[in-house]
Give the backbone structure.
Amino acid sequence: MTTRRSFLKTSAVLSAGMLMAPNLFAYDKKHIGLQLYTVRDHMAKDPIATLAKVAQIGYSSVEGGNYNGAGKFYNVDAKVFAKTLKDNGLIMPSAHYGLGEDKHNGQAVEGTILHGWEKAVDDAAAIGLKYMVCAYLSPTERGNLDHYKYVGEQFNKAGEICKKAGIQFCYHNHNFEFDKQDGKFPYEILLANADKDLVKMEMDLFWITKANQNPMEIFKEHPGRFPLWHIKDMDKTAKRSFTEVGNGIINFKEIFEHAKKAGLKYFFVEQDVCPGDPYDSIAQSISYIKKNLV
């Protein structure tokens, strides 16, 4: 099975799920997005057929992946990939990328924030991306608080380049950013050292919950800084593992009431591990979302 770390080695993930609604909500209810990491094994075998299946299940947007640093996503030419999305009624305004401090077989990984970022931004703009997201910091990319300050500086530089292309840069959290160092959360350091306009956040509601943090409090402290969300539920066992949306303990209804405060524009269902075929899990999740959240 593909791991998240190997998934990010080639560097990115495309996505979508545009949201924007009247009055109370900040997002468009007609779009429900899927982070394609959920169906990564299917995408590795046949990305064209997988996108068609995702659309058939009912998703209208995707957050995809595997940008290779030279205009291909999932080893498919960007133009072909974009046409496939359009043919299936899908949009994808966002993509995930790696930082690039880690090497692969001793070589720098192109298409990452530290290596070939300008080319990555050009390719993203060419296919209409609105967001480029640093998806993950590997264990060797985390370090101490000073290193997180350095990472924040790199995010600012990446955000400047994105801004020139009309794209918003973001960072996607896990739970390790809430392991305190010298009395502070690394996440606090990133928020403070990354410019609030150049660097927005994609909040993963599972990992925020795993870290015992309250997403509504974070929205209140940093209003408008969370245009992207990952909708991922946590099961009711002691392990607090992944489960289908609506099948766990996270109160999505309450969280969605704070969408406008957060600045939500796009959300994506993601389930890192599924008990069986991911298609079954994403079908269950979208059914709950349609009945209860949109």
Remarks:
- The longest helix spans residues 145-164.
- The chain has one domain: 4-109+117-292.
